[in-house]
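WP5 quarterly update. Target: Glycoside hydrolase family 1 protein. Source organism: Entomospira culicis. Length: 478 aa.
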Amino acid sequence: MSNQPLFPKDFLWGGAVAACQVEGAYNKDGKGLSTADVIAHGMMNDPTDPIDPNTFYPYHEAIDFYHRYKDDIKLFKEMGFKAFRTSIAWSRIFPHGDDARPNEAGLKFYDDLFDELIKHDIEPVITITHFETPLSLAHKYGGWADRRLIEYYTRFVRTIFERYKGKVKYWMTFNEINIILHIPFTGGALTVKKGEAGYEQALYSAMHHQFVASATAVKLGHEIMGKDAMIGCMIAFGPTYPETSNPLDALKMQEHMRNTTTFSDVQVRGAYPEHYLRELEKKGIKLPIEAGDLEVIKAHTVDFIGFSYYSSHTVSHKGGGEEQSNFFKNTVKNPYLSPVDESAKEWSWPVDPIGLRYSLHYLQDRYNKPLFIVENGLGAKDVIAEDGKIHDDYRITYLKRHLQEVAIAIDEGVNLLGYTSWGPIDLVSAGTSQMSKRYGYIYVDRDDHGNGTLKRTPKESFYWYQAVIKSNGAHLYT
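Structure tokens (predicted):
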């Protein structure tokens, strides 16, 4: 329909994955262990370290993208992808994290991967590190609570920027950097556990060190690649609504939102909000700020804001209620939102497409920076029908409703670079370490226990998304 809002001609349509969730080959070609490699099936933030030979670790083989990426990229090209977001496995480049020299085999793998994407006219969108810190950095230093990780991360960043300049334009420093407060081992390789002495101090020290590292990466990116690259942050985002018009609920909403916006404020505005510093002071937490830290954070803010969006959250000043997502506690049910499809109800995401439009306006109003939706999707239990096909109409409905709201937001003036839906191909879920929580347009024959041929099969959503991209969004209204 000609009167429907559409997308810019240069809009970056595509899909997003993380290295640890697809690559496999966890101990091949010089790669060291990462924090993801000690997360067992069904776990999220509780490592079984050292590796137990009697335990199944889904990240070890994942979907074997490491050996099959050329065929997978052909499928992405068939869908019409303009962009593909993935990450670089830090422990593939520096096996222990603090190595003096990089692993050439790891560097070559990403050279080959990026070349393959470019050959198919697909823009690489790269997260520098995505929930996979070298495990040795957890063992030796206790993870990001130790300031020395800034140095090792900076060495990693300099290496990949110098190696891949000219191939990669869009970079993000940390995946969902705010998630460190919710899953500290996955987000920051922290070894101190909740309830142990020094836990909160370690948590916020790690947060600060990542902020300094992120700003340093922006600085290096601009020095090494100049105007040929854009360096962004990446946050997990979803609006918070008050349960009622009670002012106390509004205050609770504001408090909940600040837990997210503080992370974007530091990276986009270049300073800690005063309210956050005061809150930490009341908790008895002292940020490990050293000379030059606040100056580098101020001087080197990000070029764009990448974010994931899956759902919104609703809060009450009365507290408690149902947990409505994997990470965000003490939220309550929103009666105005529909539940997810039966195939996805196990993971309890309420569906809120309008919340994505709200998020786009909220972030643009607050920061006036280009935005990039780098994750959005539906994890569900897909079933192969008797005809051999996967009829995932529920996924199509979910994505269609969200993309229609995105189109409206763009028509209303939001500056959006692109949309890479989460998991264009089935992968290991970071939230549950399961394969059965499937996101992809492409089915991978692999179950929760490592059984299967790894054969790739396009789902119905594959052809739907293909039509959406080909029509630059017009197919959303047919």
